[in-house]
Amino acid sequence: MSAQETNKTIENKVKHLLSQMTLEEKVGQMTQVDITAIGNIEKLHGRAEELIDPAKLEDAVLKHHVGSILNTPFSPNNEAQSIETWHVLTRTVQDAATRTRLKIPVIYGIDAIHGATYTQNAVLFPQAINMAATFNADLAFKEGEITAREVRVSGLQWNFSTVMDIGRQPLWPRLWETFGEDVHLATVMGTSYIKGHQGDDFSAADKLPTCLKHYVGYSYPLNGRDRTPAWIGERMLREYFLPTFEAGVKAGSPTVMVNSAEVDGIPGHANHHYLTTILRGEIGFKGFTVSDWADIERLYTRDKMAASPKEAVKIAVMAGIDMSMVPFDFSFYDLLVDLVKSGEVPMSRIDEAVSRILTVKYQAGLFEPKPLLPMEGNFATAEAIETNRQAARESIVLAKNDHNILPLKKDANILVTGPTANLLSVLNGGWTITWQGAAEELYPQEKLTVLEAIQEKSTGKVTFVGGNAFDAPIDIQKVVDEAKSHDVILLSLGEHPYTETPGNIETLNLDQAQIDLANAAIATGKPVILLTLGGRPRIITSIAERASAVILGFLPGMEGGEAIADILYGDYNPNGKLPISYPRNTNGITPYDYKPIESFETNIYDPLYPFGHGLSYTTFETSGLKVEKSQISMGENITVSVNVKNTGSLKGKEAVLVYINDVAAAVTRPNKQLKGFKKVELAPGQTESLSFTLTPHDLSFIGVDLKRIVEPGDFTVMVGNETVGFTVTK
Ligand code: GLC
Predict the structure, then answer these.
(1) In the chain, what are the domains?
(2) Cα(258) to centroid(ligand 1), Å
(3) Which residue from 191, 391, 619, 648 lies 20 to 30 Å from 467 (Cα-Cα)?
């Protein structure tokens, strides 16, 4: 059956089912509750069969017709469950759905943002900021494939991933959940993940629907604190924050989760212009929107926009919210039934929302569930783990390597110290086994910390001075004493895991304890290799300037310890590049695509390390940059070609980045914008010629009237230290 026929069939099925549904059954489909609402909380560590309270389950699914459940047992101390437990939980919920009048399946949603977060022993990838640093779309595709398979094998049916927000505010505690500051990079990585995750048909036994989040403008709070106002005008929103969502919709993601905060004075959950006029009218999104956590009631309890909980429901549903993540009770259900009965919300709006939800349930195959794939061969396979290790290796950025102190010889005597040297949680960050990712005791102990990976690989003396928790005090005097008998110090600094508002901070500066430790290590006179781990670029300037080498690890995932050791000892040649500008100072939040006014007179773009920065153990040179024509007419593509050569003595990978600048336009244009990248592996002396096609969309921008346009005029193409120009004529 063709896709068109399938869609027609589904459309008819939805219409038929809708015609049989009562108002209550329809509103139930728009209601999503957390598993806590149907859970036996005191049984968290009991038998799987006892985790769900039968009476609460009946109340939710049969009495309130709830159409979706989310999360792992039990908020706020969510914990990863075994596959066997997930099978019991999801089967229990679906069995309840089969006892309803119309037997509409419940769709079970989970956050699986870097692998199957909440399934024990799943393959947990580098976080998005690291995946972006690989500049390798194929790895994002594979991550999507493996994540979907392992979530599906768990019995779950919907993944609240991937984040399509742009990470341009380094203080924001969810920066690491984004693919960085650049629209093109985030678009390519996000859509590759979606395509791997959904395939051509996300009803397949190893695929499932994704969710674009958090629509829109959530990631740029003025003060850097999560869930605070973003002061983004509509032109900047359309230029920087909407394009990734447009691309995600085009890539076929069928659900969108809404921004928990407010943009330009309007809460995301109340913004009809964004949720309906733009998302539906302009972008043509056909799937369904889901609120974020408790964000409809927050229009009343927090934003003081609604005069009552009932008005909050009316505002949100009429703005364009199709499903409410309530999450703990049936207030949304009760209020919306009343609103329809009183005529304040038309049945047509309910039918529209429910049709969208049922359509996605049909598309996901929930009405004709396929048998779950067996764990064997589909979960935590050796191949998937190797893919994860490769992603970790390619995600790590070698930012400094004075006198080629790296790679180390295996027999080097190394002193390892610092709060992130001997923990697994600091490699993974939030949304790992638990919501905040900080339950070190729940991490799979067979995975290696940075220290353990070094101990495995080294044939020299390895001494660790540190504690077994992030805040454990470190005996600085012992570091100084031990340094005498070692060749080099690995100083592992950074952040403990976090996500969302618990991760809010007041400054990007490191805490004083880490600064004191760093100063003491440097004062020993031994070469210091600075390694940072964590979700944000903490200020390391004074340490980095005195260190011999700097490795920016961010959150490389469960194989990150081994990947870092591979790079330290030269078993892997690093090739990660920064997907964000690494600030020199805590207020250094200027992105690489800054406007001309930001580099005028005393204003300068002066990061510690710029976007796209990353060293290798070999060297590469680009040359011969040219464009196929010096002039094109409006609407034409133009091909750019460039050679890249490995001019060093080691095989290595290199991402070649192509930037453009629109020389003059009616709206000020960034000094440069990334419009293409390709990653190649070259042997010493090998040269490869690369070509890129720039489309009119690549040359476009959001004009004065908020429409996307291309203006005739001069453009400059930049690759490496070469530039070449071309002109667009009318
Ligand atoms: C959280 C997050 C969102 C997540 C959702 C469900 O508040 O903002 O990213 O998908 O709730 O856990």
Answers:
(1) 3-363 (3.20.20.300), 396-599 (3.40.50.1700), 620-729 (2.60.40.10)
(2) 10
(3) 391
